[in-house]
Write a structure and sequence with these properties.
heterodimer; A: mainly beta; ten-stranded mixed sheet; 24 strands; B: 23 residues; little secondary structure; 0% helix
């Protein structure tokens, strides 16, 4: 079964499955223990190392191996974890499991431009005003019409000493928004990279006034999950690695690009649109009767057609012309015995150089314009009652 | 009645050299 087409072959909206987009991705940690080595951590010894790769490797959960930051003794106490997802994903949730006491404050950010700029998705703190200058998140979601980064309580410490930072995209979005029909929600859930800022250790409550932590502290975590769907705008049901090893949508519906966010070159009979559950909005191939390989979209023609067709064929071949290569170019006429899509659908007029008054024939009948007294499709004979003269200007004269 | 095709050899191009088609 093809998720992107129904049983009759008609296109329908399709989306890749929900995956952990962070799985197997490299995590960039601003601080990792073991360089230089100490009693608890040695980056050069695999048995005693705690690299950031442990955050996104598919390790067992019974006895997790944990990433660990360097010991933090004085400000700044920030540690950043960054996960490039490789391409745009539509987020559903983000979670990070801590192996030791979770931080007292953290921020979750996303990038939509592969790390060039960042916007917050949420904050986590028991002192939202102090840490982030924000009010605690209202119980019923954001007050505004669109999604926004709210400040949620800091992760609780579990009985085993760890904790879980968990964020769902619904947490920052007002109820009732529908992904298919809400561009702001589509923007809100789209991310190419995820960044978690661990900004205040839980023990900072004990810190001295100069910012020095009384007990050396390190963040420790495992299992960073970024739940989401590869973003294909409703035009693919899966993402694959391309020849360069980049994750990219397996685009259908005449679309292309890493996110299926544009129409393929010949599929520009109407503007690109994201597919919805109700409508596939497939890109349509231009109608060029097989005589052109390229076309361009013309918005004016699209509007004039009642938003049905805006494609204009380029470089019509086989002596055809017109927006759809649907008629013959000057000097050629339609051969009624051949289909319009036939390479030889247009025949040369072949107007007689003396008998015809011009080189352009009727594009439908092939009739050349004949001089007085001349007849025939190509004007190559004198009409009945006329005979050939010696003058090329008046080749046929009345028979005396 | 089917008339014969125009015979190019019969035309006198003396005064119309510039109109003479290339063969």
């Amino acid at each position: 079964a093809d998720p992107c087409h129904d049983e009759g072959g008609a296109p329908r909206g399709c989306v890749p499955g929900l995956v952990n987009a962070a799985l197997g991705r490299e995590v960039l940690a601003s601080s990792t223990c073991g360089r230089p080595a100490n009693r608890a951590c040695d980056a050069s010894d695999p048995r005693r190392a705690h690299p950031a790769t442990l955050l996104t490797s598919a390790g067992g959960t019974a006895s997790p191996l944990c990433w660990r930051s360097d010991l933090l003794q004085r400000a700044p106490l920030n540690v950043t974890l960054t996960v490039p997802l490789g391409k745009a994903f539509e987020l559903v949730f983000v979670s990070l499991r801590f192996c030791s006491t979770p931080p007292a404050s953290a921020a979750l950010l996303k990038s939509q431009d592969h790390g060039r700029s960042w916007t917050p998705l949420g904050f986590f703190s028991s002192h939202c005003g102090l840490d982030y200058g924000r009010l605690p998140a209202p119980a019923d979601g954001p007050a505004g019409p669109g999604p926004e980064a709210l400040c949620f309580p800091a992760p609780q410490t579990h009985p085993d000493g760890g904790g879980l930072l968990a964020f769902s995209v619904q947490d920052g979005s007002p109820p009732g928004l529908d992904l298919d029909n809400s561009p702001v929600l589509q923007d809100w859930v789209t991310a190419t990279d995820i960044r978690i800022l661990l900004t205040r250790p839980a023990m900072l409550e004990d810190a001295r006034d100069d910012g020095e932590v009384t007990v050396p502290y390190s963040y420790s975590a495992t299992e960073l999950q970024v739940g989401g769907r590869c973003k294909c705008n409703g035009h693919a049901s899966r993402c694959l690695l391309d020849t360069q090893g980049h994750l990219t949508c397996d685009c259908r519906h005449g679309t292309e690009g890493p996110d299926c966010s544009r129409c393929k070159p010949f599929y520009c009979d109407r503007p690109w649109q994201r597919a919805t559950a109700q409508e596939a909005h497939a890109c349509l191939a231009c109608s060029c009767n097989g005589h052109a390989r390229r076309c361009r979209f013309n918005m004016e023609l699209y509007r004039l057609s009642g938003r049905r067709s805006g494609g204009v064929c380029l470089n019509c071949r086989h002596n055809t012309a017109g927006r759809h290569c649907h008629y013959c170019r000057e000097g050629f006429y339609r051969d009624p015995g051949r289909a319009l899509s036939d390479r030889r659908a247009c025949r040369a007029c072949d107007c007689h150089p003396v008998g015809a008054a011009g080189k352009t024939c009727n594009q439908t009948t092939g009739q050349c314009p004949c001089k007085d007294g001349v007849t025939g499709l190509t004007c190559n004979r004198c009409a009945p009652g006329f005979q050939q003269s010696r003058s090329p200007v008046a080749p046929c004269v009345k028979t005396p | 009645e089917v008339m014969p095709t125009l015979d190019m050899a019969l035309f006198d191009w003396t005064d119309y050299e510039d109109l003479k088609p290339e063969v």
